[in-house]
Amino acid sequence: MKCFKKTIVVVISLALLFSIVACATSKTDDSRLMSGLELSDGEEWADMSSYETYDAAEEYFFVKSNIKDMYEMVGRKESFVIYFGFSRCPWCRDLMPVLNYAGKESDWGKVYYADTRANKEWKSNIDMDDYDLLVEMAFDYLPYDENNIKHLDAPTVYFVKNGKIKNAVFAPQYDAHKETIPDALKKKLMSDILKGFKSLR
């Protein structure tokens, strides 16, 4: 009888141990599941691991997107936030933790991420797929370049409410190749991004 009880205790202990290991593994494999965010059909999480300033443990997540996706969401009159940037851009790297924090503070679900350098043959942002659609949607929020062409700068964050761009945040002006973002500019960037999220309410 003692042997039977020991066997039961060992079996139960092993079962609990396997359950704990399985839960721990699923958390480390994809902590996004813990955030409670759900993807819509056809959506997938953006891989932000190449951003050295991005911390997945913060449980605020980016969804892979592009200009065509944005155009379709605008056509459906959706409200959303989309960030255009790329991981080797120092202004984008400085913006990432600010956008992460502001998104959490604003309790906004997910941010769409369009990698401006997704095309390996990239030469300019105006070469991005469906760039003409972006110009159509965001004409008033695109600066002119030196050739008098509407040009998307990285980083840019668009705040879209019911299919209309309500606000946009661009990179602050400083030499990101030589310095990290100065505190005063970081505070202004945070304030501008928080206002963008607020404009969607």
Walk me through the structure.
The protein is an alpha/beta fold and 201 residues long. 38% of the residues lie in helices and 13% in strands. The protein is built from five helices and five strands. Strands 1-3-2-4-5 form a five-stranded mixed β-sheet, with helices on both faces. β4 and β5 form a beta hairpin. The chain starts with a helix and ends with a helix. The relative contact order is 0.14. Mean pLDDT is 83; it is low at 14-35.
Main traits of this protein?
single chain; 201 residues; alpha/beta; five-stranded mixed sheet; 5 helices; 5 strands
How would you summarize the topology of this molecule?
Elements: H1 2-29, E1 62-64, H2 67-75, E2 80-85, H3 90-105, E3 111-115, H4 131-138, E4 156-161, E5 164-170, H5 183-198
Parallel strand pairs: 1-3, 2-3
Antiparallel strand pairs: 2-4, 4-5
Summarize the structure.
By secondary structure, the protein is an alpha/beta fold. It has helices at residues 2-29, 67-75, 90-105, 131-138, 183-198; strands at 62-64, 80-85, 111-115, 156-161, 164-170.
Helix residue percentage: 25-40%
Largest sheet: 5 strands, mixed
What's the count of strands? 5
- Helices, by number, come to 5
Q: Uncertain regions: pLDDT < 50 for 5+ in a row?
A: 14-35
User: What's the helix-strand series?
Assistant: HEHEHEHEEH
Gyration radius from CA atoms, angstroms: 22 Å
Q: How would you describe the shape? A: globular
Q: What's the assembly state of these chains? A: single chain
The strands making up the biggest β-sheet line up spatially as 1-3-2-4-5
Distance between the termini: 66 Å
